[in-house]
């Protein structure tokens, strides 16, 4: 593949066909195509409607609890001995992660479109919980597809969804994880086209989802921009986030895309190690292909069969990545590193001990690369890390890995 | 493009005054040898055209029967390369029966469209259906297929309204596949009454024969479809015979071919005694 040229305005993508360079697009069965086009038109109308934006903004303030704080992590900064570390506290949002930002936007859109039934896929269960939450709030029936393996390792979230009135369908096909949950949600959508809205949880899938989810998550980066200017009087030197599908990362990156002095660093899940083949790092260990409606980096074999992802984190355990990340990687605007299960567990414990915060095991992947980034940036610099979720849901997983009974 | 075998077959059937029976099988299900035996037996059992599924790990528009068939094929080591090898073997003894490949985008993207088209033409493939490449994404693939004179066959669906149909049938040849229900394969049953006007709309928009599939499981239903469409496609019911044969430890080839024979017979006689349509 030829290296694509650097664009003048990174924030002007995707194009009308949903393309970020060669990535993105709308690779869906014909039955869904009219719905996808309808969704695109409805989203564009809502985006331009001040009433919709005001409604969204009001719920973000009074229901989600925005803006989330930008917190100077003094002890973590001292510990690493490099740049000043700020944490964007998305884990303090209602439901405990950034996922609610996107769900609130999409549920308002679904209502506006007159849809009466919501479906979603979930990996760790954070998106499922956020979807079940907004469905309860707006009185819409909700079906959440979740891989049977994930149902087992994220039991507390399954119960939370049930309490919120959602029906959780355990998916046993394929590897019984997030990609299979997404297949099953698509099968539901193609069967129930007349009344159903598919509330995708990450900035991936067919156009307009990568753009729409990014827009709803960009509230993170917009707030960081204002907050850091107020706190430090300047933009950060680097912004770091974990990447599975990549919605929290694109949300914090996007408002900084045209500030080329701000390094954007995504961290993929290296699982048991990149050399073992047991990882979930689509960019670092995959190549471009088509899955779930978009062209993007994928874990696949020589014949284009999708291979299983491996990660301690259910939320990063996906063989693909959002198309905008694939493009930002190829044009060189963002850098994608990796962190192993073990490094992430160590980072999880470190944040708990030094700052009194239990991070989601997903967010701990970003934390694991923080010492390197803080050192590279140096003492006079500023680094912002997106703390995308809280770790209460992961306590059992962490205990298990530490060999402890709880 | 020529689409010679497909056009010749539909012209011949039109002269006979009957619809085609199209059998869908998964390549190398349950293994290469048995899959080849089934493929070779299909024309004599009554299949006028054959759709050969090439397996994909994540078949998002398939119901459980074809999902399981793909898993069986993948487990036996099948993929796109072996699917083409299977068809090349079949072509050694059959030069007339059209073969349509059906599957998902990524194995084609992985191989490269141009290389795929070249290899498919050499193997004796006549046309291609890709479930997850809608017209909006199809031009690069259509260019590659045109260069090898292969047909790109399109799926029209209950959601393809009059505004959408002209887009759906653009750059298509051979025939149009009408997906008779909104849903995945092998679950809901097509209602022949609702199918007739839809087939007529697709025929008018495309000027091509219209095959109808999804949800056709019995000879009676196949006959009802054959009265209103140019072809009836059966897939899930055939791959279920493979599954049932394996479970009962019976001759899989025999089970599939006898199912094909009963379905084909009923399609053949569907219009007998009827006034010309």
Automatic annotation (TrEMBL), chain A:
Record key words, sorted: Amino-acid biosynthesis, Aromatic amino acid biosynthesis, Lyase, Pyridoxal phosphate, Tryptophan biosynthesis
GO molecular function: tryptophan synthase activity
UniProt catalytic activity: (1S,2R)-1-C-(indol-3-yl)glycerol 3-phosphate + L-serine = D-glyceraldehyde 3-phosphate + L-tryptophan + H2O
Domain of life of the organism encoding this protein: Bacteria
Cofactor(s) the record lists: pyridoxal 5'-phosphate
N6-(pyridoxal phosphate)lysine, modified sites: 99
PROSITE patterns (UniProt xref): TRP_SYNTHASE_BETA
Domain Tryptophan synthase beta chain-like PALP, first and last residues per copy: 65-389
Pfam families cross-referenced by the UniProt entry: PALP
Pathway(s) annotated for this protein in UniProt: Amino-acid biosynthesis; L-tryptophan biosynthesis; L-tryptophan from chorismate: step 5/5
EC numbers on record: 4.2.1.20
GO cellular component, one term: cytoplasm
Keyword Glycoprotein recorded: no
InterPro entries the UniProt entry points to: Trp_synth_b_CS, Trp_synth_beta, Trp_synth_beta/beta-like, TrpB-like_PALP, TrpB-like_PALP_sf
Function: The beta subunit is responsible for the synthesis of L-tryptophan from indole and L-serine.
Subunit text: Tetramer of two alpha and two beta chains.
Family: Belongs to the TrpB family.
Protein name in the entry: Tryptophan synthase beta chain
Gene source species: Phenylobacterium deserti
UniProtKB/TrEMBL annotation, chain B:
SUPFAM superfamilies found in the cross-reference section: Ribulose-phoshate binding barrel (SSF51366)
A Pfam family this chain is assigned to: Trp_syntA
EC number: 4.2.1.20
CDD domains linked to this entry: Tryptophan_synthase_alpha
GO molecular function: tryptophan synthase activity
Catalytic reactions on record: (1S,2R)-1-C-(indol-3-yl)glycerol 3-phosphate + L-serine = D-glyceraldehyde 3-phosphate + L-tryptophan + H2O
Active-site residues per Swiss-Prot or TrEMBL entry: 51 (proton acceptor), 62 (proton acceptor)
Top EC class for this record: lyase
Cellular compartments per GO CC: cytosol
Keywords associated with the record: Amino-acid biosynthesis, Aromatic amino acid biosynthesis, Lyase, Tryptophan biosynthesis
Pathway in which this enzyme or protein is active: Amino-acid biosynthesis; L-tryptophan biosynthesis; L-tryptophan from chorismate: step 5/5
Self-association state and partner proteins as the record states: Tetramer of two alpha and two beta chains.
Family assignment from sequence similarity: Belongs to the TrpA family.
HAMAP family (UniProt xref): Trp_synth_alpha (MF_00131)
Function comment: The alpha subunit is responsible for the aldol cleavage of indoleglycerol phosphate to indole and glyceraldehyde 3-phosphate.
Protein name, per record: Tryptophan synthase alpha chain
Natural source organism: Phenylobacterium deserti
Highest classification ranks of the organism: Bacteria, Pseudomonadati, Pseudomonadota, Alphaproteobacteria, Caulobacterales
